[in-house]
Amino acid sequence: MDAPTAPSCRSTGTSVRRRGLARIVAGKAAYVPDQHLPGTLDVAFARSPVAHAHIRSIDIGRAAALPGVVAVRTMRDLPGLGSLSSTWEVAGQRHCPEHALATDRLRHVGQAFAVVVANDRATAERAAALVEIDLEPLPALLSVDAALEPDAPRLYPDWPDNEAARAEWLVGDPDAALDGAALVVEESFTSQRVHPLSLETRGILAAPDGEGGVTLWVSTQAPHQVKMAVASALGLPEHRLRVIVPNVGGGFGMKAYPHADEALLARLALDLGRPVRWIEDRRESFVSSAMGRDQRVDLRVGFDATGRILALDGVVTLDKGALIGQSSLGTAWVGAAFLPGGYAIPAVRIIARAIVTNTPQTGAYRGYGQPETNLALERTLDIAADRLGISPAEIRQRNFIVPAQMPHMIATGVTLDSGDYPRLLDMTLERFGYEEARARCAAAAASPVRRGVGIACYIETSNMAPSAAAAYLGIRAGSFDLLTIRMEPTGHVRIDTGQTELGQGISITLAQLCADELMMPVEDVVVAHGDTALPAFTSYGTAGSAGAGVGGAAVIKGAARLRDKLLLWGAHLLQLDAAAVELASARPLGDEGAPRAVVRDKADPGRQVAVSEIARAAYFFHSAPDGVDPGLEASVGYDPPGFAISYGAVAVEVAVDAETGKVAIERMTFGHDCGRVINPAIVEGQISGAVAQAIGATLYEAARYDEEGRPLSTSLMDYMLPLAADVPPIDLVHLETPSPLYPHGVKGVGESGTIAVPAAIMNAVQHAIGTGTTLTALPLSAERVWEAMRTTAQI
Amino acid sequence: MQPTPASVSFDLNGAAVSEQVPPATLLAALLRDRLGMKSVRLGCGEGVCGSCSILVDGRSMRSCLMLAAQADGTSITTVEGYAARPDLATVQAAFVEGFGAQCGFCTSGMMATVAEYLADGSVSDHGDPVTIRSALNAVACRCTGYQQIVRLVAGLAGER
Ligand code: FES
Ligand code: FES
């Protein structure tokens, strides 16, 4: 007889130690710069000194003559090297092929126009400086306003203007509703351009495989997309390419899409027959990687006298920089689609548009447009609350979509799947001590250190829509995952996933889900990732807060398939019918050891066979169950059923130095609901990391350019990253509403921390300095806050 | 004409090292490229981010700002040498247990900073989160938001 079933050793819900940390602390993690192949050549680029010019000619003679230089190429010398087309493609979108090197025009300072390959990086850089270019300067458009002037020169002569793409939503009659509103708040909110700035820059190593193909090591979130893009640009069949992702030193969206330079490196490796490597240096990262944010939201919102929103009319304008790039208007689109937030808004008109300018391109950055539009609406709610004489908390409560209305499709067509927005706000404010804090701030109104509290709520898109709906979103990619789960002959499990480990902890997260499904200890599951040669595929890259949701649901599906096979094999070994057996976690009688997974007779649980024995039998068998393949492997595809919408509420208390305008964030309570939590420590790490990035973007990070379009930030000395003392302790409040759409109830969390923090801080600063001057622009530099206080004092 | 190479000798993770290097060679380059100390990460190469920090005579130093020649006669510990030193192995273990790293790119510098902080006799309360945060200011981490690192350092301080 068997002991009663041991309590199953569930690992989900616990903070199981992350995979890969032992290698990291031992210094053994290997990023792209740590990969070494004999005979590797180094690459450097010659980059544009001007923001806009016609290229008359390029002379590579002096560069090519420098000893140690192996090759110098311009686009002209690379016939047949194709371009990349956008991942986002909405109706009516204009086109500008993404070439690795400029063809006939330079459109931003730092755009590459020639590439040098040399024996070492220093030589390559010296030669790059010797490439001569003859230019005919063109007027530079350095802001969307300049680009939108009716007579503005066009960046792309075959376009009618400088608008790259646009999308519109119209529901109800917003004009009539605004006309009838008791209060209309109308403001323009801007979120400045920032650098996602992963601490490890981008990096590429490309090596010919000796059989006409190329292997690339790339610091990327999207190996499969890189493979597709490179294959298409080179005209190579995809099975000739392999993309390996070693350790990645942060991505944050900046590495979520393929880049034309990846195709260029692959081409150079093939042409030269040697490995070639480019490690982006910190300085060039400010011109060669896509920047984030840079949106303006012009918003009109109408309220009735009780603070209920009647209508919203908004224009989201994205400064796209010089390239439509991979994300096109994606960040403006997502920002617009999620602009209404968790509030019931009956009439809506929103336009999202992307405008090209002579600056480096903008693209994906953690939050993907949502922080920008969240700032606009959450600021507007505070402004309205103040004018209507109700509290910021109350105006939100009056407009929330409530649980009884879930699932609920908001005006922009996004369906909120589940959640209790009012309750989470209450919980957050209670933990924060909101009322007491507001009273405390009022007491500091005239003191040298002003105090303010601010709140903001957010919703966060995660897990992606079904692949078939991607077209509606304008995405030329699916959103599904393919993966393989194999139980080895020893009974241990290996998952091959297409998701990429970026340090966010996806490996342990997937292992935990699998272990629970198969009733195994999590140590018995390994996760292989980061190699397109694995039998796995992720169709949109590891991005969009979809790893645990989509990648995780694929694991659940694969594990269920594997479990079915185990049951068949187990029944076969027990000489029972498959319907008569079950998978269980049990400890043999008299055995003090850990419980193990078994397949057993439902009617007689003592009749059982350990899963490890089944595994052995499946590989070393003499008789197999009828119609069952040998081995224990399951390959599955999982297409997400719909967005899972995470949400939350942020409360902050700030101190503002009345003399200098300097803002200090003293404490923060962060209430969030990301559905079922697989690993609490990983969720905490995701939120606090994103919050730190949001604090930087709210207070001081800014990628600026001078009047010639030259970047003013080109190093970490003039681009400040938030340090430990800039980030307050974050008090997390958890609510868990499993997403009904997903088998494991998981919603994404990777971007949550970025979304409402800017608005909460701006609301707090406004509260601290009084409402005389309305704050609408980020960053809240000391100078800007001081200026607002000075103007207020003069009123 | 090539400048005369400088000869540098120091103790690296308990072993004597002697190298001839061009005088302008940075310590980070010598450690990473010639001596194989891959734990030395370069996040900026100009002395700001701290990811290249190593322990030089027990003090955390930015190896991208030091000339190799300046290391002459010192004792250098990189992360590769932590496991052999019980005090430093504890720091490693705490980073693993306490989710002290995500991408890991800052971690070598972060651990050097933490080791120096914990050994700093002038700090009266090593467990004070405010003091910890100001010590951690020496290294930029783009991933963690510092929360879990502050907690694990407080934990290490409590164990002493
Ligand atoms: S690489 Fe040395 S401080 Fe950044
Ligand atoms: S863990 Fe990625 S920079 Fe610190």
UniProtKB/TrEMBL annotation, chain A:
Pfam families: Ald_Xan_dh_C, MoCoBD_1, MoCoBD_2. SUPFAM superfamilies: CO dehydrogenase molybdoprotein N-domain-like, Molybdenum cofactor-binding domain. It comes from Rhizorhabdus histidinilytica. This is Carbon-monoxide dehydrogenase large subunit. InterPro entries: Ald_Oxase/Xan_DH_a/b, Ald_Oxase/Xan_DH_a/b_sf, Ald_Oxase/xanthine_DH-like, AldOxase/xan_DH_MoCoBD1, AldOxase/xan_DH_MoCoBD2, AldOxase/xan_DH_Mopterin-bd_sf. Residues 26-139 form the Aldehyde oxidase/xanthine dehydrogenase a/b hammerhead domain. Keywords: Molybdenum, Oxidoreductase. The lineage of its organism: Bacteria, Pseudomonadati, Pseudomonadota, Alphaproteobacteria, Sphingomonadales. Signal peptide: none annotated. One of its GO terms (molecular function) is oxidoreductase activity. Its cofactor is Mo-molybdopterin cytosine dinucleotide. It comes from the Bacteria. The keyword Iron does not apply.
TrEMBL record, chain B:
Gene3D superfamilies: 3.10.20.30, [2Fe-2S]-binding domain. PROSITE patterns: 2FE2S_FER_1, 2FE2S_FER_2. The keyword ATP-binding does not apply. GO terms for molecular function: 2 iron, 2 sulfur cluster binding; metal ion binding; oxidoreductase activity. Residues 6-82 form the 2Fe-2S ferredoxin-type domain. InterPro entries: 2Fe-2S-bd (IPR002888), 2Fe-2S-bd_dom_sf (IPR036884), 2Fe-2S_ferredoxin-like_sf (IPR036010), 2Fe-2S_ferredoxin-type (IPR001041), 2Fe2S_fd_BS (IPR006058), Beta-grasp_dom_sf (IPR012675), Diverse_Oxidoreductases (IPR051452). The keyword Iron applies. Pfam families: Fer2 (PF00111), Fer2_2 (PF01799). Keywords: 2Fe-2S, Iron, Iron-sulfur, Metal-binding, Oxidoreductase. PANTHER family: OXIDOREDUCTASE WITH IRON-SULFUR SUBUNIT. This is Carbon-monoxide dehydrogenase small subunit. The lineage of its organism: Bacteria, Pseudomonadati, Pseudomonadota, Alphaproteobacteria, Sphingomonadales.
